[in-house]
């Protein structure tokens, strides 16, 4: 049985909520990703920030990327899976929440991240199409 542990990229990179948006943008660029989990000061996962968040919630509203903190614009809702969750559970998390990346948490510890591409490599073509369609629905 394929599990989240088999699919995930580890270690997962994250941003601190106290990081500024310029730091976040550079981290996204360096890692060549469109989103990253955000860690609160207590070490728990507190949200996710996307390149779109930076542009739409900050830059377009005139916020200063050198002083605006990531935790001011990141989503507060985090959908995650556990490392031992099976591929069906992971697929459901993607589909039900229309997300393209899902953090893998072992308790409160971020141990990996699964992208839509990671999932697509594991699923049969028909299932991959179903997940992509569910993620992309309006």
Automatic annotation (TrEMBL):
List the Pfam families. CBS
Record's PANTHER family? CBS DOMAIN-CONTAINING PROTEIN, CBS DOMAIN-CONTAINING PROTEIN CBSX3, MITOCHONDRIAL
Keywords on record: CBS domain
Gene3D superfamilies the UniProt entry points to:
CBS-domain
* Keyword Glycosyltransferase on entry: no
Protein's name according to its UniProt entry = CBS domain protein
InterPro entries from the UniProt entry: CBS_dom (IPR000644), CBS_dom_sf (IPR046342), Diverse_CBS-Domain (IPR051257)
Q: Which residues form a coiled coil?
A: none
Q: What residue stretches are annotated with the CBS domain?
A: 8-65, 73-131
């Amino acid at each position: 049985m394929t599990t989240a542990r088999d699919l995930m990229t580890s270690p997962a990179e994250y941003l601190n909520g106290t990081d500024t948006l310029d730091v976040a943008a550079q981290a996204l660029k360096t890692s060549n990703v469109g989103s990253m989990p955000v860690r609160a000061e207590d070490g728990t996962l507190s949200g996710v920030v996307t390149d779109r968040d930076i542009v739409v919630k900050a830059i377009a509203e005139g916020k200063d990327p050198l002083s605006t903190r990531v935790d001011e614009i990141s989503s507060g809702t985090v959908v995650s899976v556990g490392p031992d969750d099976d591929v069906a559970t992971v697929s459901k998390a993607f589909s039900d929440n229309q997300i393209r990346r899902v953090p893998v948490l072992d308790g409160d510890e971020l141990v990996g991240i699964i992208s839509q591409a990671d999932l697509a490599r594991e699923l049969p073509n028909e299932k991959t199409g179903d997940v992509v369609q569910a993620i992309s629905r309006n």
